Amino acid sequence: MMASADEMSKGSLKKRGIDLPRCFGQTWAMDMPLVSVAEIKVRDRGVAKKVGARDFALEVGDRVILEMNEDVTYGVVYGRPQRTPFIPPMRDMKTIIRKADPADLQAIVRHERLAGEAMAYWRDLIDAYRIPMKAVEVVPAFDHPKLTFLFTADERVDFRMLVKDLAGRFRTRIQMQQIGARDEAKLLGGLGLCGLVLCCSSFLTEFKPVTMKMVRAQGLPMDDNKLLGLCGRLKCCLAYEYEEEFRPSGPHGPENGPTLIQPERLSTTH
To answer: Is the pTM of this model over 0.70?
Structure first.
């Protein structure tokens, strides 16, 4: 007799060292609903993220419409939907709105062409005005006329002339959004020295402060460049062992808290 979907999912988790009875009590995973999860690259950039697939029949290469950062955008399927037990971190997971229809596919082609043209023109303006900023991405809004220009800069910059020229060229609403170095790494993705996909790209939902105090407490050399991530900031993973080994004990200490499932990093084969 073939195993049920629940049994197959439990067996897969057990092989990966995830002990569901230990994590959620002896009630076992029978009460845990199964959810459909697909791997999507937002605007076909960065690394594939796990996204709720609902009941859509998706194949690798399909385009889908989803909401990210309060804006509607598109993504490309890099991993077919899989049924997996719901775990707490999935509360922050985005969900596909719909599979792209022919009208959506035409809009995606227009947006990709527009984003490429806007990025080239923007970089020319940055050079012409000698503005100290780095262009990261241009994001056309999917459901209303707006272009969002994402950039990094070491300090506040005056981009009023940029906005004037960009609005005159593209005849739409222009939004300039400054992001941090960590946000840029999260957006573009990459591999860390550990050989795994960057934590910020794969499973982190927020950035917590990483300080030199954490480095000193772990007895690590203060001037080691290996402590820096691709963003040029202290690696987020420095906080993991600090929180596990060096956080003060007490009623809210780690030994008295619940045992959590560690987020599974996404595949690096995409």
So the answer is: no
